[in-house]
Amino acid sequence: MNGIKYFLFLLVFGVLLSSCKDEYAERIERQKEQDEASIQEYLTENKIQNAQKQPSGIYYIPQTPGTGAQVQKGSTIKIHYIGRYLNGQKIQSTYDSGQPLTVVANPGRNNGLTEGLNEGLLLLKEGEKATIIVPSMLGSVSYYGQYGYVMVYEITVLEVK
Fold it and tell me: What Pfam families does this protein map onto (predicted)?
């Protein structure tokens, strides 16, 4: 008798767990679609035509080309940046303190930057100015635990070591 109860418990638990996974996957997919629509609207409203979508979903928008070394995983870089939401609200800026950020570029994100920003940094060279748009799944969700906050980073790479 106990074996049957245990089997039924496992069966019900498995069905509930599977249902939760399906709901979570659907929620993620909906968020990705919403982020993409918001990004496309932002690009259109701001007449940005040179945005390059990367396989992960981030967008790279070159402003001023760099002539120095390419940022690599593990490079120590010095950058100035402004982070904003799509509506233009500033969240953070190294310009406010006048102190650039020095950080080790690492897509594994153990350096205090979001996954999407870390990935975007690897697209840049020393001296380059660019904008990186990070969908919430690679930015605010992974960093702040919140859905729906697409981030726009204006970055200037000052130094690559």
Answer: FKBP_C
- Global pTM value: 0.83
| Mean pLDDT, each 10-residue run in order, the chain (161 residues) | 65 54 81 94 97 97 97 96 94 95 84 88 98 89 64 97 95
Q: Between vectors from CA 93 to CA 38 and to CA 43, what angle results, nearest 5°?
A: 20
What residues does each domain of the chain span? 38-160
Distance CA 122, CA 145 (A): 24
Residues in Cβ contact with 34 at an 8 Å cutoff, skipping those fewer than 6 apart: 148
Q: 38-160 belongs to which CATH class?
A: alpha beta
